[in-house]
Amino acid sequence: MRWLEYLIFLGVVVGLAAPVGVYLARVFEGERTWLDPVLRPVESALHRIFGVRRDCEMSAGLYFLCFALLGVLSALALFVLLLTQRLLPGGPAESYLTTPMTFDLAANTAISFATTTTWQAYAGENTLRYLVQAVGLVSQNFIAGAAGLAVGIAFIRGFARQGSATIGNFWVDLVRALLWVLLPIALVGSLLLVWQGVPMNGSPYTRVHTLEGGVQIIAQGPIAALELIKNLGTNGGGFFNANGAHPFENPTALTGIMALLAIAVLPASLTMTFGRMTGRPRAGWVLLGVMATLFVAGLAVCDQAESARPPHLAGLHVTGPNMEGKETRFGVGDSVLATVVTSNGATGSYNGMLDSYEPMGVLVPLVNMLLGEVVFGGLGTGFSGMIMIALVAVFLGGLMIGRTPAYLGKKLTEGEAKLVAFNIVLTPAVVLLLSALALTTAAGRAAITTNPGPHGLTEVIFAYASCMANNGQTMASLSGDSLFYNLTTGLAMIVGRFGPPALALALAGRFAAQGRLATTSGTLPSDTFAFGALILATIVIVGALNFFPALALGPIAEALRR
Predict the structure, then answer these.
(1) Separation of alpha carbons 390 and 395, rounded Å
(2) Predicted model pTM
């Protein structure tokens, strides 16, 4: 039954990819859509207010500067709001805000939400006021998600255009991403969540007496406003510390599947958008096929690890799967599916404690993030990462046939090859160097309070991989709310947010300026099963060369010790 659930979910994602991908292409190419009569006047009004000129396109460098400027201003605004939140009206009551909003925690949280990482070194229900959650965090989920989608579309334009010095206008793309994509889906989805029982109120926390005679505090608030967009914008930061496992965030089977589809469908659809905008639809299907294959492989490994009896409990005659850290209402199937989807989708909206997964089970989300979330990925980020890997495959294939490497008629010359190489080494450089710093300093080791040895090493690598991938998932036994980790994880988030897009947009600008090579008998085909296999092999090789030693000392060593 679990595999039936997995395959149905994957089938729905693949089935929706084509129509949604075509819709995205029409939106960002300025073609007519069924929402135009309502949204075009709103778009024109916003352009007038903010002085945006639709006909004024940008170079790749200016496009990135606008993207970076928006991110910096967003982080600063949220930072100020977090530091002054005690002055804001509304709930929850002051007595429930037990986690102090220190300077470094505010900076880390502001960076986290402005970069779509939504890494949370705090529990939302006892740290933030309703207004901060509903205004500060929700607005960042929309803006940061839309900005990422805009960069992904600009990256695609680099392949679609010929002899062009521009790749679009960032502000135009941002507005269209908000109005035509995120806002309509989030509005409808949030209403469905309210219908399913997700609270949307400003009521005080409820104090109740339990049957055992104790007292329990039931937190609530404007939860539905945050829930859909946190997944749709590939953000993931939950209203509650328990995130997607909390019954107020995820009360029914329908809300669970809505969350996972919100994470996966838009990023998967960018492969179809790519195929349509470049005029090579089969190339888009090849990329989607590679993503689906990797998705199934991750499910297979994680499911096998979590569905088997935990080896360390064999002597206790315990039968059944590993249910430690999992909600009984989700079981292994829903938990594994959510883990694989969220770790592939730059969305840390977990519904189980990854720290309690078996070593080979936690290996899967860790590898997904280390590879740059090339399976579906975040809005724009995962797709550009997949294309970078495809360009490495093109380079290797070009060497094999003795011709200048080219992808979709775009030559991969020395300049383009350097950008691709920088992109490939950026993640291992940041993650492994920061992990080494954490493990060799007293401040870094102080956070490993519960699980030393290989498991502790995995926790540290997982934290920096999550922040670099702008994901936000965490192995909860790492005590991350400290000055050291707030600063170093914040650094990883910044590099992860701006480093890959800078390289991707620079590459897009170079490709847009090129012409398009004619297809000949010596051209390496990019829309065949063989090319898809070459991409898969390249992903495995690049991943192994970059990360296998660290993985061998972490989750693999822990698995062998059991």
Answers:
(1) 9
(2) 0.93
